[in-house]
Amino acid sequence: MIKVENFGKTFNNNSIALKKINFEVAEREFVVILGPSGSGKTTLLRTINGLVTRDSGTLHYNGKIISSGKELHEFRKKCGMIFQHYNLVSNISVVNNVLTGCLASTKWLQSLMFLFPLKYKIKALSCLNRVQLLEKAYETTSELSGGQKQRVGIARAIMQEPVILLADEPIANLDPEISYNIMSLLKDICKNDDISVICNLHQVDFALQFADRIICLVNGEIVINSPAEDLSPEEIYQAYKSEN
Hints:
Blueprint: E1 2-10, E2 16-25, E3 30-34, H1 41-48, E4 56-61, E5 64-66, H2 69-77, E6 79-82, H3 94-99, H4 108-112, H5 118-130, H6 146-158, E7 164-168, H7 176-192, E8 196-200, H8 204-210, E9 213-218, E10 221-227, H9 233-240
Helix pairs in contact: 5-6, 6-7
């Protein structure tokens, strides 16, 4: 479905973030990207959806090259993004935060005033029900717990009807039990809603438990790209040591 070919990125301070990154993601595949802090995980996700412009390489979607302009704009509509720090508007309702997931298909003035068509409001409530948060729909987002805010972020992402979810450290600020619940939700969405997932993590145990495939980045390079069932924690930790 998605093919990343020879992605490269160097920032203005001459730090190399990505070096010839190559991998593919199949339909309904749950891919976890592991790596030390600064290994390029976030940059990689942001180059896939165009938030960061890559210096080299090609992105393919269903056999078609996605370059720039209209093609990139249409592809980004298909990419739901889930952020470590939620990226929610704290002083508005939960359902209005979810509705921001359809901004790309709403007139600017209408979206500014949250005058969304009824069909979008119904859809937003359905997305909240999907993440088991429907009862919080009309509460102010600032009143929610961290795990609940991340569920709102997931609901906003699936509001786009994406073909792929890009999750950047979605459990970094959550305790183990809530982290497990969030990962279980993402895996369920992947398999039952036919949405591929690329998820950045630090937690090796969760990666081995939930991933179909694990990619390990070290210093901007892929050092592991294997089915999760073929890997052990020791192999992953050994790969981390190549950073030094």
